[in-house]
């Protein structure tokens, strides 16, 4: 008996950098739908086929999005994305966190349709995990940031998140350029707070 999910999800693929067709206007040409699923069993069929992040070549992106949401900045201009960096030597950690993030999404651990998808970006110098929001209201953004850290079991004492608005990404043609960095403080909940550029945060400064 198949185990149904509450919503349908779609895996996507897109090359980046030198593998992509030159020019931002061609992003939709590069974007390929891998397949749609709505059961746990179908999810694992795709997941095993795609392989783990450490097995994916540089300059490739794998994405999981709710059906009817395509992973394109211009289709979600009121939203933004949380971003976590992983060093190239952290492949095993990235493998575990990518799997945890996928399961958190299809299991609705964020308990919020504002979370529309996640992205794995394999790059030459570092790898990225992104979680896309369709609405970047501050309260919603921070609440999901907290749930993201818990779902991935990340140590708040050794963690920096980044956040970038999709409208700015579209203008910059970059995910990371100008992204805001966040660290966690206890208030008493562990809450992501903006870190002033070029400074280390004073924890007392950010108490709510």
UniProtKB/TrEMBL annotation:
SUPFAM superfamilies assigned: eIF4e-like
One Pfam family this sequence matches: IF4E
GO BP annotations listed: translational initiation
GO cellular component: eukaryotic translation initiation factor 4F complex
UniProtKB keywords: Initiation factor, Protein biosynthesis, RNA-binding
Compositionally biased residues, Basic and acidic residues: 197-208
Domain of life assignment: Eukaryota
Region (Disordered): 184-208
MF-aspect GO terms: RNA 7-methylguanosine cap binding; translation initiation factor activity
Similarity comment: Belongs to the eukaryotic initiation factor 4E family.
Name this protein carries in UniProt: Uncharacterized protein
Record organism: Paramecium tetraurelia
Organism lineage string: Eukaryota, Sar, Alveolata, Ciliophora, Intramacronucleata
């Amino acid at each position: 008996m198949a185990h149904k999910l509450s919503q349908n999800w779609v895996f996507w693929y897109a090359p980046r950098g030198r593998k992509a067709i030159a020019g931002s206007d061609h992003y939709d040409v590069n974007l390929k739908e891998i397949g749609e699923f709505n059961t746990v069993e179908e999810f694992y069929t795709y997941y095993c086929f795609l392989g783990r992040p450490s097995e994916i070549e540089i300059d490739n992106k794998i994405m999981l999005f709710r059906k009817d949401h395509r992973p394109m900045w211009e289709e979600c201009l009121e939203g933004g994305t949380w971003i976590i960096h992983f060093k190239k030597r952290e492949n095993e950690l990235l493998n575990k966190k990518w799997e945890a993030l996928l399961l958190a999404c299809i299991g609705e651990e964020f308990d919020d349709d504002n979370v529309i998808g996640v992205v794995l970006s394999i790059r030459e110098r570092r790898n990225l995990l992104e979680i896309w929001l369709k609405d970047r209201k501050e309260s919603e953004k921070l609440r999901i940031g907290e749930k993201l850290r818990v779902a991935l079991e990340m140590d708040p004492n050794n963690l920096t998140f980044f956040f970038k608005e999709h409208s700015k990404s579209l203008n910059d043609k970059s995910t990371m350029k100008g992204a805001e960095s966040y660290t966690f403080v206890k208030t008493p909940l562990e809450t992501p707070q903006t870190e002033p550029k070029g400074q280390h945060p004073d924890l007392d400064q950010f108490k709510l």
